């Protein structure tokens, strides 16, 4: 059911760009419902596993970026969508990095994933009101996006300081530097720069999540191949293909956790969503 949230998120993105905001909101609610039901069902049936937790959290990161990619459809510049998505990814990476040190990372920060989903729903409702009022510019909804961006990045700082984890602080600093460099190079203002930067951060998140489960990195020679191809993509479409390699690595790690690929791996670690 985790995977079922993804088609609904994509439908949300499609109808957002079609300016059919009512349908967009409906599909975002369905996507969120699938995610909630998945966790509840897994706990109720006792079928929680590291494989399921890894897949769930990995798809959540894809959904985070899809949601941010819908923001320009309401008139927000790509720069604000860029800050939204990168801040969300760094927030999740900090949690995964803290878990490497055995630190529980849930419930830290003023703008976690659930809060961001509620916030984007409010943004779209305000955009609908603005459309019905025939306002010349969507200034209120865009201003709200900017304010939420600030809260997301405050959450990044909160987590970096709260965890007291050297790994979290180091990974947060590296990813924040990637964001800053992307902005300084002018890569944060169009869709390719958005996909490239978020793809890199998402890719780093996968590695952090894998390590938080207690496994080694690299898992195999295929990791090195994927890393090399991913870095090469920086000169092609500004790194946007990172998301292709994200899906490949996510699938590879998921199958490994299921024991159907590289079954010789061993490790210990909590399967935290």
From TrEMBL:
It comes from the Archaea. GO terms for cellular component: membrane. GO terms for biological process: phospholipid biosynthetic process. Pfam families: CDP-OH_P_transf (PF01066). One of its GO terms (molecular function) is phosphotransferase activity, for other substituted phosphate groups. Keywords: Membrane, Transferase, Transmembrane, Transmembrane helix. The chain crosses the membrane at residues 20-44, 65-90, 110-129, 141-162, 168-186, 191-208, 228-248. Belongs to the CDP-alcohol phosphatidyltransferase class-I family. This is CDP-alcohol phosphatidyltransferase.
